[in-house]
Amino acid sequence: MNALVYTDTQEVTYRREPLPQPREGDVRVDITATAICGSDMHAYHGKDARRVPPLILGHEVSGIVLDGRYAGQRMVINPLMTCGECEDCVGGRSNLCRHRELIGMYLPGAFAEQVAIAERNLLPIPADMNPIHASLAEPTATGLHAVALVERVLPRPLSEAHCLVIGGGAIGLLTALILKAKGCVSVDLAETNALRRSSIEQQDCANCFNPLEEALPSPNGYDVVFDCVGCGATRRSASEAVRPGGIISHVGLQDDAEGLDTRKLTLQEVIFLGNYCYTRADMQASIDMLYRGQLGDLSWIDVRPLSTGAQAFTDLHNGKVAAAKIVLQPDTLL
Ligand SMILES: [Zn+2]
Ligand SMILES: [Zn+2]
């Protein structure tokens, strides 16, 4: 099959690869669309010790199942494989499973024509759902999971909260769109890339500003800050932005540099919430929201052929992409 393989730091190569080998319980899926994730970029930059080249990256996928009981059906893949038996899995927090595995990490991912995945990781989608939109179920689930954790500890309804989203990539934008869908009217969004700011502004879900040139609109004033970047500088900004007793939701995972103001967190009883991935329920809810158009028209997605994937990675690296998301499709489908 044709695949886009991460072959070296800042190098992905479109080439022939053997078909995926299903393990016990796996089915094969013909891929329709795979979105490029921030974590794929992190690997591309050589900064993820878990993703070692040569490796097919990609875990945000929609496709058509080839075998098993769903054969012939359109599906979204839940790329997070969990044991289903441990305390966390049984307790409804499968994202914390100690045996979790992700495709596109140690196992081959989905920047290809086919992928193998456990049958129980498939989620059916409506036959008339746009497969490009469906490939966004995974990042949407990440945003939805973060928002759900925040709602659990917020003392007042989320719709009344003054929120800051740091980072206008797909997770940041989707988080802002989820907040809008939940009735939140007061959302600021920090994004350094002007192309991205202008494409987000068209979605009318947040007031965008450039944190490198403009002052934070409400220092010490946000009930909730979603850090969708997760680097030292953004943790510093999140610490400055959050109000006493407020919540920092840490969604991004860019580095572990210092930045968090633990003194303020302590003196002002700020709640710090870590977020990792999503559960199957979050994935299902995401499919429903995307299908019903609750997150807008999704016109900000940039669709490209898989064979031009190397250029897409280069463009993302150079900050030349206005879209918050690039989705790659096998060339035979375009
Ligand atoms: Zn992802
Ligand atoms: Zn488990």
Automatic annotation (TrEMBL):
Keywords: Oxidoreductase
Keyword Oxidoreductase among record annotations: yes
Pfam families found in the cross-reference section: ADH_N, ADH_zinc_N
Domain Alcohol dehydrogenase-like N-terminal: 24-126
Coiled coil: none
GO molecular function list: alcohol dehydrogenase (NAD+) activity
EC number(s) on file: 1.1.1.1
Enzyme class (EC, first level): oxidoreductase
Name recorded for this polypeptide: Alcohol dehydrogenase
